[in-house]
Specification:
Length: 477
């Protein structure tokens, strides 16, 4: 497990270093701050289990710092230290929420006992809060995932079984965009014995690989430019709980190897660090890609895939969930009525038939946006077909038109595109998805005059995701 952490705030450097050395020998990870301002900066990058704070500090004093710490996180126990202690000062500190009061000169053994007691008390409070919520959470831990279809019920039953395990193996949640993979991950966390511990979500498409490594594993001071303080990574921040890797299929290959080591060995090494740190964290991952097919193309590490896919939960698309769409529509109708102060009571029959027949390429997320827009445009007590703004009868979703250069390229590469392949529509059978995707990216770049930001907007993806795909396919923008 991750070692407990202590922050010592004292301008007497010799004493602060002695406390840090003694606590480090006792199994703690200790950081030192010379004043209140530095302590507040450290709070943004680490969440200490215990804080020792001198009452007299340069600039902001210890009592004021105690108030700021309580505002930041009232669950962190703070122990006030002073050589100028009085009963009145002790009473004031305790009234403000200090865990205890320690007079100088400091007895290091007494200090360690106080640190142990403060940490144990904090853990007991967290556990008490957890047990108070557990019965309600477990009564129907998947209540947030609405639906009665057999396909969804099967997935939710599997999620409950996973949550009941004491040692949860890595779980890979698959499904199209907008099917609710993140919601299922949160319900597994909430229903598990770790429900009171952290749930840290990582969007694997949000950052390039160089920044993602420091984000996941942390970094030491001086590891790179502007690394002025050591910082824990998200693996460490999720200690005792769950780490959810959303869109894990978009991770670049070099980072996949380091992720594999962390998952297999349950250790991480901070960027610029020289020692491995033990982690106690459960791994959930999600993707809308076919990772098994990606491994065959060497776009995703096979060993990492098998490590993450110990258990696979495959979420069904909304179009395969039957009347769940009506249940969800009613749910979003109530939500957006409350949000916008509307009084739409129902969805009329023709609109209900349209909701059932529409293919929902964007799944539940698209349905939510459709109902939100419909509620905003509505003038009466019922939503009708016009409010939904959906085509009827529902069309199959066409792919954007391929660039004119694509057929020429196909002629030079037998088996891809031929003159018999129609330009618009879905990719014809036998056409590689990557070829289709590359052609769409090239077309978007041409029509955007080489401007990557506008091209990304046309494709409905982020600029970082576009840059990743440009690199993946070797496209020169």
């Amino acid at each position: 497990m991750t070692a407990p952490s202590v922050l010592v705030v004292d301008d007497e450097r010799t004493l602060a270093r002695a406390i840090r050395a003694f606590l480090s020998e006792s199994g703690y990870e200790a950081e030192v701050a010379g004043d209140a301002e530095q302590a507040l900066r450290l709070l943004e990058t680490m969440r200490p289990d215990v804080i020792f704070c001198d009452v007299r500090l340069p600039g902001m004093d210890g009592i004021t710092l105690l108030r700021r710490i309580r505002e930041f996180d009232p669950a962190i126990p703070v122990i006030i230290m002073t050589a100028h202690g009085t009963i009145e000062g002790a009473v004031e500190a305790v009234k403000l929420g200090a865990f205890d009061y320690l007079k100088k000169p400091v007895d290091l053994e007494e200090l360690k006992l106080l640190a142990d007691r403060a940490r144990e008390t904090s853990q007991l409070k967290q556990e008490l809060s957890y047990y108070r919520r557990r019965d309600a959470a477990r009564a129907d831990s998947t209540a947030g995932v609405l639906g009665e279809s057999a396909a969804l019920r099967q997935v939710l039953d599997q999620a409950r079984q996973i949550a009941a395990l004491d040692e949860t193996p890595p779980v890979l949640i698959t499904g199209e965009t907008g099917t609710g993979k993140g919601l299922v991950a949160r319900t597994i966390h909430a229903a598990s014995s770790r429900g009171a511990k952290p749930f840290i979500e990582v969007n694997c498409t949000a950052l390039p690989a160089t920044l993602m490594e420091a984000e996941l594993f942390g970094h030491e001071r001086g590891a790179f430019t502007d690394a002025k303080e050591s910082r824990m990574g998200l693996f460490e921040a999720a200690a005792g709980g769950f780490l959810f890797l959303d869109e894990v299929g978009d991770l670049e290959l070099p980072l996949q190897g380091k992720l594999l080591k962390a998952v297999e060995e349950r250790t991480v090494r901070r960027v610029g660090g020289i020692r491995d740190r033990r982690i106690d964290v459960r791994i959930l991952a999600a993707t809308n890609r076919d990772l098994e097919r990606e491994t065959q193309r060497e776009q995703f590490r096979r060993d990492l895939y098998f490590r993450l896919a110990v258990i696979i939960l495959a979420l069904p698309p909304l179009r395969d969930r039957g009347t769940d769409v009506l249940l969800l529509a009613e749910h979003y109708l109530k939500r957006y009525n409350a949000k916008y102060g509307k009084h739409v009571r129902q969805v009329d029959q023709r609109a209900r038939e349209l909701l059932l027949s529409y293919p929902w390429p964007g799944n539940v997320r698209e349905l939510s946006h459709v109902i939100e827009r419909a509620v905003l445009w509505s003038r009466g007590p019922a939503l009708d077909v016009e409010h939904l703004s959906l085509a009827t009868p529902p069309p199959t979703t066409p792919a954007p038109e391929l660039p004119t250069a694509a057929p020429a390229a196909a002629a030079a590469t037998p088996g891809l595109l031929t003159h018999e392949t129609p330009t618009p529509g879905l990719p014809p059978s036998g056409v590689d998805l990557e070829t289709w995707e590359r052609a769409l990216i090239e077309q978007s770049l041409r029509e955007s005059g080489g401007n990557q930001t506008r091209a990304a907007q046309r494709l409905g993806i982020s600029r970082d995701t576009l840059r990743y795909r440009l690199k993946k396919y070797g496209i020169q923008a």
